[in-house]
Amino acid sequence: MAVYFDHPIDAPESSGAPSQLAWHPIAPVLAVASSSPTSGGTVDVYNQKGDFVDRCHVDRPSHPIVLHWHPIKPVLAVGWENGEVLLLSYPSGDQAILPSTHSVSCTLLQWSGFGSRLVTGDQNGVLAVWNIDAKGRLQGNHLVKHEYKKTLTCCIFKPATPGDDVAKLARASVSGDESALDKFGWNKAPLKIGPQEELTFYISTTHGTVYLVDEHGKSSELLSVEGAIKHLYYFDKRDVLAVVTETMVLSQYSLGPPGRTQELMKVKLSSKSRLISYVTWTDNGLLITTSNGDNMIRLWDLEREDNYVLCLDENVEFEKDESVNCVAYCAEKGILAAGTNCGHIAMWRMAVQSGKKKDNTIQWKLQTPTQVQGSVTQLEWSSSLNLLAANNHHTVLILSEHVMSAHFSQQVAAVQLSPAQLRITQFNPEVHLALQSDLHIRGICGTKDSIIVWNGKQITVYEISGTVLRNSGSFSCDSHVVAVHEENLYTVEPNRVQIRTPQGTVKQLLTFSKAEGNPTLLNVCQSYLVVGTDTAHIRVFDLSRRDAKAHSSAKNLAELIPNLGALSSVKCNANGSQVSILITRVNGKPDHKVYFYDVEMDTITHFDFFSGRPSSGFMPSEESERQQFEGTELSGRCPISHFWDESEPRLFVCETVPVASESSSYAPMDAVGKVDITIALCKCVLKSMEVLVFQVDVTVVTLFCTQEHGLLLHDCYLKPSGFQSLLAMDVPYCYFICKPGEQDPSCQPEAAATELQPSKGPSAPKIVSRRALRDFVGLENCEKTTRDAMLNFSFYLTIGDMDEAFKSIKLIKSTAVWENMARMCVKTRRLDVARVCLGNMGNPRAAKALKEAELEPEPEAKVAMLAIQLGMLEDAEKLYKSCQRYDLLNNFYQASGQWLKALETADTRDRIHLRTTYYNYAKYLESEGSKAQAVAFFEKSDSHRVEVPRMLQDDTPSLEIYVNKMRDKDIYKWWAQYLESQSDMDAALQYYELAQDYLSLVRVFCYTGNIQKASEIANDTGDRAASYHLARHYEGHDDIKQAVHFYTRAQAYNNAIRLCKENGLDDQLMNLALLSNPEDMMEAACYYEERGTNMDRAVALYHKAGYVSKALELAFATEQFSALQLIAEDLNEASDPSLLARCSDFFITHSQFEKAVELLVAAKKYHQALELCVNHNLAVTEELAERMTVSELKDMSEENRKELLERIADCCMRQGNYHLAAKKYTQAGNKLKAMRALLKSGDTEKIVFFANVSRQKELFILAANYLQSLDWRTDPEILKTIIGFYTKGRAPELLAGFYEACAQVEIDDYQNYEKALDALTEAYKCLSKAKDTSGKQQAKLTDMQHKIALIKKFVHVRRSYADNTEEAVRVCEALLEEPDLDPAVRVGDAFGFLVDHYCQQGQYQVAYRRLEELQKLLPSQNLRFYISPASLEALQREMGVILDHSEQKMNMKNDDDDDDEVVEELSESHS
Predict the structure, then answer these.
(1) pLDDT of residue 1453
(2) pTM of the complete model beyond 0.70
């Protein structure tokens, strides 16, 4: 709640009557245009205090018509009656006159959005556009000039367009948006950062035409209306142009492409007179109008297409015939101000309430009016500092907003109502006084005996004497803050606090050093004074003695609190041990914490209302509960005011408001006199600062603060809607300032102060109310002993010390006290304490309900039941919501009669009980007599088919109408039964037919004897129930054939079978039995068997019924082999083994061996099945083999199982199924036979795999031996595998033999003695490792060593031939003399070496002789195999002989690389 202090401007004497007002959009500077009939006109500029700026004075012989400030720069454009346009700079007073363009009165001035263009227009329709630089100076002549021939009335620029969002473009570029990335390119146009100024504007004339002037100055006609246009408005959200004419017609046009419009709406505005005198627009599309002599304001909401009126309320100090002259709207504050002819300035505050469907509703709340002199003809809001300028034709008043002051001490409350008026309330006893001061009050403080008011320049003291206020002293003092204790006043001045008498005499000085700063904050509680300075120091003084003594030294809070900017408010408790502090941070924003300075311990703690947690203090045992309580009510908030209890030093209270983020803030409050929260409440800005919404979600939080336990949460609740702000706390009450004209409906009459004013009677509105603390509801008038006991109980309960808590109340016998403590248990959630309280209350019903609620798993649900029993329904509702037990919440709403909430909860949160809720609500409506509504909810609950006929059974006409309207089969059936009970058979048949109840139709037709119709219905519909009823009817009348027929249609086959057996209908019996269940089939089969006829039917029925053994016995007994064949096909392992054996013998007899084998396997006679397969050469498939494989040892011993598997494998081996044989040998554990089976299969891959898996020496050797049979010479992998298997099989002698074979291959096939030497060497190594068991190993080693020596010599001969030819030839000749040279070195290779040598030396005779010797030794060999073709050709040519080429040519390998690879692989694998 705020008041406005008015002060007139300091206008020079030469100024005439003010005619125009204009505030600068940014700076608090006011321009005033005045006119005088004799001296012409003047324009003056004033600051926010109304002081005249000498340099900014302009006077002309003509009158000023239009004023308009530059949107950014301090430049004022003034249009005069003679057409002159002047630019006036503030504060320099520089003047710039625009070049002469207008010859008649200027009618409009309009700046563009950023002030780069100025548009001027006159009565002749001449329009000019001027270019203005960034400093607000004129640039040359006009840019554009148009002549429209009609008076120009309005001009508006299009709003600025938003620029490029750089952050959004950057994110899009990173995510791969090429178009966004292109905007950052160097060759592209620069990014448009921030709003972009629009230079397009619209011009209107008195002829009703609107023109569009684009950014290039080109003009075009846009639209035309009837009558002169008085106002234009551009609604940028919808791109709509609104036009208001002097004939009060409002039109809206949608703006399309340039030059195109479409009319959306045209409406006639209503007013008391024919002309609208004043029109204003809000930024969110709200049109506000008023007319001469009208006492109301009309509002037109263009966005919501709604309209409403605001009236002057006679009950709020307005006169009966008072009318509105002018209006002004402040978008930043959401306040609409209206000036009246009686000197009142009425104000309405806009509040936006969110609806359930996210639609906002606008409400206007009338504030206390401000009174000024004269008739207010013009109002203008300043954009800053909460300033309002008012013109009353004689002078201009500047109204500055001031938060109303209030104070409470010693049961005396004083609240400011207007700039000079106070309302004083004394409690105990209740006395209510009014004070009219001569000062504009800026602060209040008081005691039970006196009230002190001040305005920053003067202090006045009023003495309270009964119901009279007496001025006991007044003195001048430049102190902006004052405190009082007993007979002493405390004022501040630089670096000291003055202690004065009520007459102003200084008694004592409390000095502060320069480092401690200047005192700015004072607060007194009991006998302690706390002082806060501008350097964030605090000091506490003891006032209990004659002179004030320091209770603590100066403390620099900046050393303890990080980011501290300045102190906002300081308060001390009743014993001076704790000081609570609110601060603003370095960035100028209020802190979300309340700080507590412990004077004795010299420590500081805090409670952070944004996180909802203190720095310390919650008991660990209740941590989880506290966290939940904090999360729902305390977190995300800021403190705005704080107080200590007047007598209890542990109890602290504060107000908090919600904030959106940790960086959000609110307007801070001073501790002294600034408790009005309408300014301090957090403001929610909607739709780009269009309107301010004042939150009502203000919480009051009480805490216990002690040295031992820190900060402990005591209570937290929402401030009642009828209260304006918290004023003070004095146990057992919290005191609140009431909103004007409102009060808290929940306050008890005895707890609220009834305002009395001796001078005006008892009807004055209440201004202060008090609300009992949670612990003292019902105990407001208790004695001090009980009050102290309750405080101690609450404190000990909060810290969890139950022993001390009960000790503090053990002497209390009052039921009201115990009930109040039980209520406390709801807040603290201490059910153990609640049980004790309920016991002392003697409330067994509540105790039983609490015990039953203990079955609920959620603690909140248990506490909610306690709250219900104590009548705390709001708390119960919150608790159910917090634990999300919406089923219990639904039941709670139903039990408390809140059916709309119950239905909403069931629909959104408790869908599983939605139909139940509908049903219960329908029953409730039925009990209330609202049957029509009950029908609707019975239908929603899907119980209308039963409940509605029951409810309307006494109102037969209504019931019949409902039945015909619903067209529901169940309801038709119910109504037909009712008609049948009334013997109205024809109508009953009609409704049975509508209900498609064929049973009832057949039943009624049978009853009436119309059997033919009943048969038609049963046959046509096939309804089983109808057919059954009709069959019973035929059976009762001995019509067996029809009875059997309809029993069959009803699928009552047992009844049909019964009739067939009784009446010998054997042919039909078989078909019916096959359609029926196994029991009926069994009975029919027994029937056939007993009669001894149709035994094949008996066998088939036994088989079909599942009695296979019985069917087989009967088939064997009656020798029905065809039936036996069918039965045997259904036999499986689950059948009787003896039956399987009999059937197998049957199939063997009839040479169906495959079927017999399957049955023998099913009978688990595996050996017989195998014998049958062998004898009759039946293939053992893998499926059959698996069936014969016994998996469970209980069916066969392990030894027999292995024997069976080996027999299966042997059978597979005989049939050539080697893979299956290997599998079965493996399952039998005989891996050797399994390997042999695989060897027979020739599957190399599986042989290698099996050998590696089995890892047995014998298997490795077998696999290696097998692999030697393959082409290992050309496949290195096989060669490598052979060597590996011999190695793993630990068979060095076999490996040596393999190496020796490799060496011989190298000699015979490739003549590669080097690789052969390597292979023999490896063979020698392996053989030397083998164990000699036969004694032949040494001889083998000697022979192999001799071969190695010979090969080495031959290899040496080849290698040394190039270096020492003679020695190589000599050694080769010596080798030929060796008796056992071959097979170590082939003789042909030695002779070939010599022949090649002699040919190269040209000794062809010697070479030919050696060739002849070779032919004698090897007459059958091809010489070309040993001797090179070049040597042979040379011999033929030189010796003239023809060598025989008829020998078989050997294929020589040309790829030496492959040979090398084989031997190298051999060497590597061995190593």
Answers:
(1) 35
(2) no
